[in-house]
Each structure stands twice: as C-alpha cells, then as structure tokens.
Design a protein that fits this description.
The chain is α/β, with parallel strands linked by helices. It folds into two domains: 1-32, no CATH class; 34-206, P-loop containing nucleotide triphosphate hydrolases (Rossmann fold, 3-Layer(aba) Sandwich), CATH 3.40.50. The chain contains six helices and seven strands; from the N terminus they run E-E-E-H-E-H-E-E-H-H-E-H-H. It has helices spanning 48-58, 83-97, 135-143, 154-173, 188-204, 206-210, and strands at 21-23, 29-31, 37-42, 63-66, 103-106, 126-132, 178-182. The strands form two sheets. Strands 4-5-3-6-7 form a five-stranded parallel sheet, with helices on both faces. A two-stranded antiparallel ribbon has the order 1-2. A hairpin with a 5-residue loop joins strand 1 and strand 2 (29-31). Helix 1 packs across helix 5 and helix 3 (135-143) packs antiparallel against helix 4. The radius of gyration is 18 Å and the shape is globular.
Length: 214
Amino acid sequence: MFLICPGCGEWSNLRPVVESTIVCECGYRQPITLRPLLLVTGASGTGKSTIALQLIRLFTEAVVLDQDILWMPEMDTPEDNWARFGSLWLRVVANIAQSGRPVLLFGSADPDRYEALPERRYVGPIRTLALVCNDEELTLRLRTRPAWRNSAGEGFVSSMLHFNESLRSLAGLRRERVTLLDTSRDRVEASAAQVVKWAAPILENEQDLARLPL
C-alpha cells in the first residue's frame, strides 16, 4: 500500500516517515497510522500456536495472527536472518494498522530481527513477550509431538533449547522491550490470560508509548 507513491508512481521501501507522514522525494506526502506491533515469540513447544487459538476470540483489541500462515520454503534464508519473511510481515502489519487495528503476532523470531529492516519505519513501537520453558519440559514436549512435526531429533531439540535460553538472556538486556512468560507448568488457558494481561496495558497506554523511541 505504501511502497508505490501515488504522486510519482515509483516503488521504494526507504521513504522516511516524518510526523506520521511518508515523505517521497517527489514531494508527495502520504499520512500513515503507526500502531504498536506486539510479538509473542518462543521456541517450538512453548505454546505459541495453542495460545494464539485461544486468543482469537478472547482478545479482540488486536488482530491475532500466526506468522506461519505466510511461510513458504523460499522464505527460509537464515543467512540474512530471514529478512524477506520479516519484511513481508512488517508490510502486513503496517497495512492492517491503517484500519485502526494493532497486531498481536505469534511466531518463533528473534525480536531484534525486525529492527534493521527497511519496513520497520512503517510500524509503531514493537514490544515482545517471549514464551519460555524449563529444559526438561520443553524437551518432553518436542519429543512427544506427532512424527510429521520432525521435532524429536537431537539437532532440533538442541536448537530449540538454545533459542529458549537466548530469549532469557535477551530479556535481561532488553527489559523495556522484552518480557518473559514461563509456560512450563500453566495450562493453556492460564498462559493465554497472562498474554492478555501483558498486551492490554500496552495498547491502553499507546499514546504514552508513541512518545518513546521505536
């Protein structure tokens, strides 16, 4: 929606945003609504998809989405930290925001992935809730999943345990942007309620949040 300028017809994902307006070098100015992006990340097995299903009807203050709905094999580019996939989601979030709705996005992603992408400028403040588990519970969940998930192998389990621990460390470094939620023992209903408890105040205080750095 915003990448082709209505004034000159040129495509760009690098146009600056000045006071909630996208400014093209041709002089055209396009108003844009910047709404928060609420990320719920976590290793496979921490409960993201199950909680998202609970929240579709429970939490109507935001559009609840799972990032896997847009996943395709060509998006699997770890060499650039999955930049194409991240850019695609930032564009989706920015377009949804123009209808007045923020997005609550579930998916296994490094919270810092989005910060270096060109489309980051078209989204408001990003806040992250990282779902984590203790190692024993996470290992058990991964190894008892259906075979088609291919989650029981040592390599996959090890990578998820590493990601799980990296999120714990990141939360310690980014306290103002990353919050932890341990889902090791809670039922899915209780974890879903905790996600709402985290998300609701962020949206209620959106005007104050807008005055902070993105």
